[in-house]
Structures are given as structure tokens and as C-alpha cells.
Amino acid sequence: MVDNINQLLVQAQVAYNAADWSSLIQCLQQLTQQHNLEHPEILKNQEHLLELALCVLENGDFQQRWEIAKILTGLGTITIPPLIDILKDEDVEEELRAYAARILGDLKNPNAIPPLMELLQSNDSEQLKEIAATALGQMGCVAIASLTELLAQEQTRLLATQMLSYIRQKETIAPLLSIVQDSQVAVRAVAIEALSSFHDHRVPLVLINALNDIAAPVRREAVVGLGFRPELREALDLVAELQARLYDVNQDVSCAAVVALSRMGGEAAAQQLFQVLVSPNVPIRLQLEAIRALSWVGTLSGLEYLQQALYQLEFPTVWQEIVTVLGRVSDTSLTDKSAEILLEMLQQNHPGVEIANIKSAIALSLGQLGKKQAIHPLTQMLADKDAQVRLHASAALKKLTPDF
């Protein structure tokens, strides 16, 4: 073992002397394997190994720097002082300082926090500041106090908020709560999104208040967050709270509200989704979201509302989407109703049946639902004048009757 290590040390020195960084990296990778790190020869030469690794970091290309960064992380705390020196040196190229910041973040050592914070506050490079902030975020709980301090300054508040949002530890809740009414829209939006991931008693009312924020991105994050709390549906009357956002002036918000209500489930949510679906002058994007949501809400009434919409709305795009989502219903207690609606369209000669794309979609959906009562109408479709309808009817029949 000793001879092998000494041989690798000699090879590393030869590679260093020849500026053969790839060979040097290979030697260092073997010397710094976990089972070697406590070996007396390695401990005796640790500082020298660090010097060699730092030389590659300073002189290597992008890939070589990427590989040597892993070795420097493995060397542990002895790498921190020289990396901090690189980080602080304004004459050093930006890419090298960025690597130093990343490695310091991987090491998760509190001693790296002050220089990373200083870089965040004083450097003009947005890219370097973002890397420093990410490094702080990687440190988790040890960096929360430092990131909280950065919230006090407007120029670093957004980055600090973003980094706190990455940590996702309960210790970040209090600092995030302190900025939910910040003057910067992006800060509020990031804070609301991060808080949404915590099941903490302080969060739901903050999200409800944010539903009425003047900025659409903040309202959207609040809607999305509440959508993942269906267990609070009754206690906080979330269906009523979300209803107003169905008619938000911003389509991203209203579409998010549709999805959130589908997650709530229940009759009240289904009713609100139907109302927005059939309301006058509703954008088609919102109608399509409402159709999908009614199929997701998981109630018989949701499908009955879709059935009503087929005859109440006169838009082929809407008909086709309803037909498509009915074929995707997987709840066994609802598949019979889905098939019934589709078969009724065929029996009553719904206007959509005259449109080849929609008739084809009916065939596909009946095949997906797997109901034997669809065999006869699908067989009739085999004689349809449209080749696409015949093809899809044949494919559906093969699903229902494998011997077809």
C-alpha cells in the first residue's frame, strides 16, 4: 500500500512538472479516495496534494476544473482558506472565483459564510453573485442566519429570498414570513411559493391574504399553494376563497385557480368549475382547463357538468376536449358514466359527430374506457366515410375484443 501511494505521489509530481493536468487529476483521484485519506503518507503530504489540486483549478480547462473541484471538496476543511483567498481576489478571473464559491458551498462550512456574503454585497457581476447565493443556499441551516441578514438590504433581498426558498427547512419560515408584504413583487412571489411547501399553522392565512395581492405572480403562487391543501377545504372555506380567482384579470392566475379547485374535490368545486366553463366571453384556454379540471375533480357531478356543456356550448374545440378527457377517466366508479356520455353523443347525433376529428376522438375514448357496450357503435363506425374514423374505430375494437 505504502509503495503504491509513494509511486502515485511521484507520478503526480511528474505530471505537475510537465503541466499534464489530466494525468495529475488521475493521480489525485486515486490518492484521495476515501480509503486512502487517513493513510499516514497521505496525511503527511496533504498540504502538497492541496497545492497540486489548486494548481489544476487555476490552470486547467473547464472540464479539468470540474473534475478537480470534486477532489478539493474531498480534501475537506484544509481547502477553505485558499479558496476564500481566491474568492476575495478581484484580479482573479471570474470563472475561477465562481468555482471557489461552488466548492465552498459544497463544503457547507460556516467559515465560508462571511466571504460569500461579502461577495454578494460588493460584487458587480450578477452571475458571480448568483453563484455565491446558491452556495449559501446549499449550506442549509448553517446559512439561514446569514441569509436572513441579507433580507434587510434591498439590493440583496431577492437573492437571499431565493436561497432561503431552496433550503426548505422550518427555520426559514420566520424570515420568509417577514417579507410576504415586501415592496418587490419577485420577493413576495418567491416567499409565498416557498412558504406553500410548509404545513405550518402560520402559512394558510398568509396564502389567503396573498390571493388579493396587486401582482399577478403573487396571486398565482398563493392559488397554487392553497391547491395543495385540500384538507383545509372546509375549515378555511377554500372553494369560496379560490372562486374569485377563477375570474382573475390574469389568465395564468385563473387557470391556476381552476387546477387548484380540481384538487379541492367535492360538489361545490365542481359547480364553480362548471360556472366558469359556461360563462360568457371566457377565454378558450380557461375553458379547456375547466374541462380537464371537471374530469379530475372525481365526482359524478363533474362528468354530468361536462355532459351539459356538450349541449350548452357550441364550440367544436370544447366538444373535442370533453370527448378526450372522458376517455382518460380512470376512476372505475365513473367510467360507466363517461362511456354513457360518449355513446349518447352517437345515438343523438350530436353536432360534433359530423366532425371527423371529434368522431375519431369518440372512438379512441370508447376504446380507452374498455366498455363492451361500445362494441356495436364502434363496429358501425367501420363503415364511416372518413378513413381516420374507420382507423380509430378499428383500433378501439381491438382493445375491446382482442380477437377482432
From TrEMBL:
It comes from Brasilonema sennae CENA114. Keywords: Antenna complex, Lyase, Phycobilisome. PANTHER family: DEOXYHYPUSINE HYDROXYLASE, PBS LYASE HEAT-LIKE PROTEIN. This is PBS lyase. InterPro entries: ARM-like, ARM-type_fold, Armadillo, PBS_lyase_HEAT. SUPFAM superfamilies: ARM repeat. GO terms for cellular component: phycobilisome. The keyword Lyase applies. Pfam families: HEAT_2 (PF13646), HEAT_PBS (PF03130). Belongs to the CpcE/RpcE/PecE family. GO terms for molecular function: lyase activity; oxidoreductase activity.
